[in-house]
């Protein structure tokens, strides 16, 4: 039976009347002038890829500016980092205004609702299966210190550009951004049923190297007090993976200890003063791909929520590039996406 309960949606105010934009059937919706967006907004003050809405497991919605030239605003305040939306918040992109609604009711799993240009976004039931995955968590170092030293508008452009470019790089190397969190992103690679091939691990390593190179170039475009750096945690293991998207627009997410450990590994890099921390299984697969033992050192770290020490293999981006150089596949210097949006 089709539910008649209210569902999360946006109201787009136009001269021709109000338009209803459904937020059912996925976890991520993009806005901009470009045709590759979920919602194409023909406003000359809006960037090609302007902003993004993301829904997380708790049901909360986050608005993320993607480095737009003129900014994204919630209730008149410019967004510089991902912000949680509240029911009836007003969103402004360029000269376009929308109202966000997420009634505190159960989200239906069967809904037929209209959307922009009468496209159908029919929800599908979430199906979780156990899969072998690699989870990469990357965050910007010294981000809090930077926020105290630069203008809010510059900060918004910097973090938005970083999010957008990170998404472009991660897609280029075969994954997607599962979460945007503050000054961090999480990406997931889904492997075969039993093993990870050397080619897959090298692809992930190349993505991580490209992310570092992109981040280090941002100070050439923006007036930053210092070049930006990132830290990363990479973990491989089994997790429950579900498709919460539609048939023509799949949207996967992963849950479980493998995901949690990736976040903790990233945090551990600050404890031991390194750039990258690999989980044991990840390191074993990288070793099969040709990673030399002397490049990444073994450490025993205490991860949040765990009583016993966890073994990690940690090192610098220069170590990662030395490994990739030996494979002949080190990413070249890239300026991917670091142009006016």
Short account of what is shown:
With 341 residues, the chain is α+β, with helices and mostly antiparallel strands. The protein is 25% helix and 31% strand.
Written overview of the protein:
One of its GO terms (molecular function) is adenylate cyclase activity. This is Adenylate/guanylate cyclase domain-containing protein. It holds the Pfam family Guanylate_cyc. Strands 12, 13, 14, 15, 16, 17, 18 and 19 form an eight-stranded mixed sheet that branches. A six-stranded antiparallel sheet has the order 2-1-11-10-7-8. A hairpin with a 2-residue loop joins strand 1 and strand 2. It has six helices and 19 strands. The chain starts with 8 loop residues before the first strand and ends in a 14-residue tail after the last helix. It has 341 residues and is an alpha+beta fold. The protein is globular and about 65 Å long.
């Amino acid at each position: 039976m089709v539910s008649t309960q209210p569902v999360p949606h946006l109201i787009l105010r136009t001269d021709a009347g109000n338009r209803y934009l459904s937020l059912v059937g996925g976890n991520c919706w993009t806005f901009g002038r470009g045709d590759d967006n979920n919602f194409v907004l023909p406003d000359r003050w809006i960037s090609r890829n302007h902003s993004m809405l993301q829904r997380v497991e708790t049901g909360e919605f986050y608005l993320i500016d993607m480095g737009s030239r003129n900014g994204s605003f919630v209730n008149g305040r410019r967004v510089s980092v991902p912000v949680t939306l509240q029911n009836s918040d007003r969103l402004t992109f360029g000269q376009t205004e929308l109202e966000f609604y997420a009634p505190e009711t159960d989200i239906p799993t069967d809904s037929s609702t209209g959307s922009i240009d009468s496209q159908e976004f029919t929800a599908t039931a979430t199906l979780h299966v156990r899969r072998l995955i690699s989870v990469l968590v990357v965050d910007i170092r010294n981000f809090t210190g930077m926020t105290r030293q630069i203008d809010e508008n510059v900060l918004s452009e910097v973090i938005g550009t970083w999010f957008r470019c990170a998404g472009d790089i991660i897609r280029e190397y075969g994954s997607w951004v599962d979460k945007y969190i503050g000054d961090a992103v999480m990406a997931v690679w889904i492997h075969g049923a039993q093993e990870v091939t050397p080619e897959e691990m090298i692809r992930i390593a190349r993505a991580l190297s490209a992310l570092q190179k992109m981040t280090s170039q941002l100070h050439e475009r923006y007036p930053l007090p210092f070049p930006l750096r990132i830290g990363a945690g990479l973990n491989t293991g089994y997790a429950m993976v579900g498709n919460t998207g539609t048939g023509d627009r799949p949207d996967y997410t992963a849950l479980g200890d493998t995901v949690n450990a990736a976040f903790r590994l990233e945090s551990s890099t600050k404890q031991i003063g390194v750039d990258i921390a690999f989980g044991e299984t990840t390191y074993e697969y990288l070793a099969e791909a040709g990673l030399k033992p002397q490049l990444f050192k073994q450490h025993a770290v205490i991860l949040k929520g765990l009583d016993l020490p966890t073994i990690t293999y940690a090192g610098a981006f220069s170590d990662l590039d030395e490994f990739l150089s030996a494979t002949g596949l080190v990413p070249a210097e890239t300026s991917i996406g670091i142009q006016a949006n």
